[in-house]
Amino acid sequence: MRTVMGREVLDTLDELVDPRWSAVLAIDIQNDFCSPQGHFARYGKDVARMAPAVSRMVEFVGRAQSLGMRTIFMRQASLPDARMDSPAWLRFKTRDGKAPDYTIPGTWGWQFVDGLNVRDSDWVVEKFRPDSFIGTHLDHILRTQGIQTVILCGTTTEGCVESTVRSASYHDYYTVVVSDAVASPNAELHEGSLRFFRARYPTHTADEVLAAVTQAQSQVQSTASSQAQSQAQSQAARSASAT
After folding, report:
1. Structural domain spans, the chain
2. Rounded CA separation 36/51 (Å)
3. How would residue 102 be classed by pLDDT, with cut points 50, 70 and 90?
4. What is the DSSP-derived secondary structure letter of residue 128?
């Protein structure tokens, strides 16, 4: 913790990812983006290069859940017949030659990849644009749950991940990027976004983030134990003086 302009600011990684005020944001880890049989792959995108990072996303989310981390799953959607797409957005979606009808709700491509498990206590937030805050109730969820830090992983690095990283920061959340659990079919754009993240935000591997979560939990438990012991000693002293 450090003080800036008279205000306390979370600073170290274990402070930032303390589960008391942080949440994992898993962005668009869906079949159409990540699977060799998905929409991106059918239109020639190099989905195979994403496979190691997608596996790491699934592992990271599972380990974070096992540590009791609050987890929010963002899910990209496109309504049938372009019912959520303006002409300008249709141009954007088809700029690289792919069809605009990916992640249609209820389809296999819209579903999360195998191994990614949503618990009853988790949130799933549907979105129609790369920025997870636009047109969704994500901000409301975060604020009502007392979340100060979002820990981001998912796809694609230069698209929905970067859009959400920027927006989370601009919505006044501490922002942590899991560097080896973000992915893109385009290596150059992926690396460009990682350079941007590292220049502006705490950017760490999955193992580093999870180790910091565990450290924060241990510190909380240690503090609680010390306080309980101190209270017991004080009570014992008061009882002794009363006799």
Report:
1. 13-238
2. 9
3. very high
4. S
Are the C-beta atoms of 190 and 197 separated by less than 8 Å?
Answer: no
Residues 6+ apart with CB under 8 A from 79: 85, 104, 105, 128
Contact assessment for residue 158 and residue 149, using Cβ atoms and an 8 Å cutoff:
no
CA 176 from centroid of its chain's CA atoms:
8
Q: What is the pLDDT of residue 186?
A: 98
Q: Name, in order, each residue with C-beta under 8 angstroms of 130's C-beta and a sequence gap of 6 or more.
A: 159, 160, 163, 164
The CA-based angle 114-119-123, given to 5 degrees, is 100
**Mean pLDDT to the nearest integer, 25-36:** 98
Contacts of 192 (CB under 8 A, 6+ apart): 158
d(CA 56, CA 214): 18
The CATH superfamily holding the domain 13-238 is Isochorismatase-like (3.40.50.850)
